[in-house]
Amino acid sequence: MTMECRYCPLRRKDAFSPLSQDEIAFMQKFKAGELTVEPGTPILMEGSNAPQLFTALSGMGIREKTLANGERQVINFIFPGDFIGLQAGLLGEMGHSVEARTHMRLCVFNRSDFWNLFKTHPSRGFDVTWLAAVEEHFLGETLATIGQRTALQAMAWALVKIFQRGEALDLVTNNQMALPYTQRDMADSLGLSLVHTNKTLSKLKDRQLASWSDKVLQINDLSALAEVAVMNLDKPQPRPLI
Amino acid sequence: MTMECRYCPLRRKDAFSPLSQDEIAFMQKFKAGELTVEPGTPILMEGSNAPQLFTALSGMGIREKTLANGERQVINFIFPGDFIGLQAGLLGEMGHSVEARTHMRLCVFNRSDFWNLFKTHPSRGFDVTWLAAVEEHFLGETLATIGQRTALQAMAWALVKIFQRGEALDLVTNNQMALPYTQRDMADSLGLSLVHTNKTLSKLKDRQLASWSDKVLQINDLSALAEVAVMNLDKPQPRPLI
DNA sequence: CGAAATATTGAATTACGTCAAATAGAGTGG
DNA sequence: CCACTCTATTTGACGTAATTCAATATTTCG
């Protein structure tokens, strides 16, 4: 039994901007179904021309890209509400792979309907572009992180970003949230070695800023952490949910 | 005297996909004017809510982002045909600054007309999204470069990418093209120090793969360079021109 | 319970950054 | 055209943040 869009619990989260009744009704028609996957399941493959697009409804995943020599870059972490497959939908080829890290529920759309969305509901097409702009914005920040921040600054930045996303999705309780990734995932997302990632996390823990173990992230002092990260602490603004 | 879109010399380049007569006529109305700037001129400021969007018509520029501690990350290099200001247009805030590095001519659009573009010409809205997806794709590759490639691999990758963009724009003659940036720009784009950038370029020159001096890039062996870069050499597909 | 990930720690190594100084151009003004 | 300044490039020496190697816990899971 697939959830009806108008009852979608995601819509109510702070993270997302509201839709009109009309738009919700349209999305219901656009929605082709739901997909449920287990941890480790590949959802989209780099270079593939997938016929389907997704929105993550629950669970977490990862966007990653592998070089010919086997090195892996984690592009970012996928949280509920994230739109998956834009590149396949438009360019006809994914620049990265997407894989589930927990049990995930995904809203499924047909790529063939995608153009129709722009034509009949330009406001929703506008929203897709909005999301693309948000992603571009985020990737620019990530670039600055990997390129210019030290390991400690980068790790602090990453944890703050993750925590803020968690907050907007009501995933945080008592300054804690589930973070079901491995240190290897985190290392590959920041361009650090696994060993140094581990030691950098220890350092943040020693300083009583944040700790992440047993798949639980705890932030003790968000503003101090942001200070270490050389970043500004401003709330992410609401974004559309596709 | 501003150029009419239908005579725009950019449209004919391999880099871009063709437009219908109708679409060109519409773009003509959408176009608010032209802007000419000198080297060093800031075009958009990080954090600003600019009322205007641009497409680069000629010349080159740079997208960059500066951290609170003064470190600078070059997000990418701006070539003719690049769309500028998507983030301001949608999110109301640029995530990076844009600055001219040569004399540049820019096509100017009003942000207030932007929504209208999606509404009345969904195909053009679709194209804007296409460009956003291309950018996202590129930033993902850049992330993998800074995060996973060595200095030599990264430099080789950057030069191949630039050269390919140049080729698609007919900027290459005799395996040479103008590349009016400084080594500092390049260093900040790859997250390397200036000194190491210089030494890495020397190494590529010693190996007879590529040389870049006096603002001219020369590629001697593109496929060998791509091999050093651990990358695949496939032609960039045509993309829309806004 | 055993096997395979994952996490942790110490020691050795290195790719890269920093410092410093020389050289080379590019632009300005007299 | 020549001083002058400013920016960009180049090179050598040295320092270090981060990688790699290696070994040992610890957890996860079939």
TrEMBL record, chains A, B:
Pfam families for the chain: cNMP_binding, HTH_Crp_2
Keywords recorded for this protein, A-Z: DNA-binding, Transcription, Transcription regulation
Coiled coil: none
SUPFAM superfamilies: cAMP-binding domain-like (SSF51206), Winged helix' DNA-binding domain (SSF46785)
Domain HTH crp-type: 149-223
Protein name: Crp/Fnr family transcriptional regulator
Organism: Sulfitobacter aestuarii
Lineage: Bacteria, Pseudomonadati, Pseudomonadota, Alphaproteobacteria, Rhodobacterales
